[in-house]
Design brief:
Layout (H helix, E strand, L loop, with lengths): L1 H45 L11 E2 L2 E2 L7 E5 L12 H22 L3 E4 L12 H14 L7 E4 L3 H4 L7 H10 L5 E4 L2 E5 L11 H19 L20 E4 L12 E2 L22 H12 L7 E5 L4 E4 L3 E5 L8 E4 L1
Parallel strand pairs: 3-4, 4-5, 7-8, 8-10, 10-12
Antiparallel strand pairs: 1-2, 3-13, 6-7, 9-11, 11-12
Helix pairs in contact: 1-2
InterPro entries: Calcineurin-like_PHP, Metallo-depent_PP-like, PGAP5/Cdc1/Ted1
Cofactor: Mn(2+)
Membrane topology: Multi-pass membrane protein
Length: 336
């Protein structure tokens, strides 16, 4: 009898040992899957990205000396959910993905300047002061960066509202957190950052200020090209004599995506769908005004950077790039 009990005891012990081993294996597999899918996958994907190669032209057998290269990363439409439409689980999932994508790209690619092309928040157009402060705190945690890396942001319609929703209070609240600097120069490259939401052209106070800022920037850029500066250029330090990069939220006017291309372009059956002015794109008048204000500049090319749901290259009057939402985990990198 004692022998039978001993045998059953050993059998139970072996069975318990096997079950414990299987449980440990299951826990290890689950942990490994979570580690890969929620952390390592970002390194695997972004590691395949690299900066565009800068080719140095040769003249008479000698390599031309190029200016220092600026590594710039562009994001758009982070749309941090707010207290009204954001469920805590949805916010947790989205913000973890965006934070990991951004921090991984920051560590692997080491950009010198980062631009976010508007719609940082989803409910900035109507959020209360407390909700705004909470959203800003979450943004600063997610998009933390070293002090030597510049972070530049332009306003989008979800940050300050469409033209009929925006007001001075919302704009000042946005600019208190994000530097309102409209002209930014780094390593010989001039970036013009425009509040495209204010380019409605109806002569409202906010729109008039935005148009006046654009004219002033155009004047400064023109002065940078003069060999002998005239008295109208003032006594301040001159800007680098380089082609400007226009950074804004709304794309310039175009009828549709028919003339646009790119690996992430709209499907063929959607490219001919007309865009709505002042909603999908800037109005024709506002786009013409931007081009007119900068037309005096003797540049051979201009590079326009804007937000849009897909990444496209649209060859209209200049070289134009639209940048997809970060929610799709796209990080666009340029060497300027």
């Amino acid at each position: 009898m004692a022998t039978i009990r001993l045998w059953f005891g050993r059998q139970n012990f072996c069975l318990l040992k096997k079950r414990s081993f299987l449980l440990l294996k299951l826990i290890a597999v689950v942990f490994a899957v979570l580690l890969f899918c929620e952390f390592l996958i970002y390194y695997v994907v972004i590691f395949r990205c690299n900066w565009p190669e800068v080719k140095t032209p040769a003249y008479d057998g000698k390599q031309e000396t190029l200016d220092p290269v600026l590594k710039a990363m562009f994001l758009a439409d982070t749309h941090l959910l707010g207290e009204v439409r954001g469920h805590w689980l949805d916010k947790l999932r989205r913000e973890w993905q965006m934070e990991r994508a951004f921090q991984t790209a920051l560590w692997l690619l080491q950009p010198e300047v980062i631009f976010i092309l508007g719609d940082i928040f989803d409910e900035g157009k109507w959020s209360s002061s407390q909700a705004w402060a909470d959203d800003v705190k979450r943004f600063q945690k997610m998009f933390r960066h070293p002090q030597h890396v510049q972070l530049k942001v332009v306003a989008g319609n979800h940050d300050i509202g469409f033209h009929y929703q925006m007001n001075t209070y919302k704009i000042k609240r946005f600019e208190k957190v994000f530097n309102p600097e409209r002209l930014f120069s780094w390593k010989g490259v001039n970036f013009v950052m425009v509040n495209s939401v204010a380019l409605e052209g109806d002569s409202c106070n906010i729109c008039s200020e935005a148009e006046a800022e654009l004219i002033e920037i155009s004047h400064k850029l023109n002065c940078s090209r003069e060999e002998h500066r005239s008295s109208r250029c003032g006594d301040g330090p001159p800007l680098p004599a380089s082609a400007p990069v226009l950074v804004q939220h709304f794309p310039l006017y175009r009828r549709s995506d028919a003339n646009c291309s790119g690996e992430d372009a709209a499907p063929a059956d959607e490219r001919d769908i007309p865009f709505k002015e002042r909603y999908d794109v800037l109005s024709r008048e506002a786009s013409q005004k931007i081009i007119f204000d900068l037309r005096e500049l003797p540049w051979k090319r201009r590079l326009w950077l804007e937000h849009e749901p897909s990444l496209l290259r649209c060859f209209l009057l200049s070289r134009e790039w639209t940048v997809p939402a970060l929610l799709r985990l796209h990080l666009q990198i340029f060497q300027v």
